[in-house]
Amino acid sequence: MLRFMLLLSGGKAALLALALSVSIPAPVAADPVQSVLASINAARAKAGCGPLKLNKALTTAARQHASNMAEQNFFGHTGKDGRGFASRIRSQGYRYGLAAENIAAGQKTAERAVKVWLDSPGHRRNILNCKFQDTGIAMVYQPDDRPIRGQSAALRYYWVQLFGTPR
Q1: How large is the angle between the packed helices 32-46 and 110-119, nearest 10 degrees?
Q2: Predicted confidence (pLDDT) per residue in 84-141, tens digit
Q3: What is the dihedral of CA 116, 121, 127, 128, to 10 degrees?
Q4: CA 98, CA 58: separation in Å to the nearest integer?
Q5: 135 with 127: CB under 8 angstroms?
C-alpha cells in the first residue's frame, strides 16, 4: 500500500510524508483451525447445540486425510488406500458411537470453507447434529498442486472436519 500526504500551499504541492508498506498475504488466516471451530460453534449455538471441542485424535486423522488428498492429488472421503473416515478415526484410537466427516477443497479461507459446508444439506446436517461433542479440523495448503482430473485449476487448499461422539 502506498500512501501520500500532500500540503498544498500557493499552488505548489510539497510531499510531507511517504509511507510504504508491503505485505504479502498468507495463504490463509494465521489459525484456520480456530477460525473453523469458532464459525462452526457459532452456527451450532444458533441451532441450540452445544459447542464442539477439539480432540487430538480426530485432529490427527483429519490432518492425515487432508495431507493425503493434497499430496496424492485427489478429493474424496475414501483415501487412495481404500480407507474411509471411520477407519482413519479408529486408527488414531478414538472410540466413537457416532462419527461423520466434512471435506472441502479450493477455498482459501476458513470462512469460505465453512460457508460451503453450511450451504450443503449433508454437510450442514453434520455441523448441526447436536449429538456430536468432539471435532478434529485440518487444512493443508499445497502450493505446487496440480489440477485433479476434471478440474481446470489446482485446488491447493484441502479442508477436513471430523465429528465424533465418544462411547
Answers
A1: 40
A2: 999 999 999 999 999 999 999 999 999 999 999 999 999 999 999 999 999 999 999 9
A3: 140
A4: 13
A5: no
pTM value? 0.81
Sign of the four-CA dihedral 91, 93, 96, 98: negative
Q: Using one digit for the tens of pLDDT, what is the confidence trace for 106-119?
A: 999 999 999 999 99
Structure-block grid coordinates of residue 144? 505446487
Contacts of 86 (CB under 8 A, 6+ apart): 99
At CA 19, angle to CA 17 and CA 23, rounded to 5? 175
Identity of residue 55: N
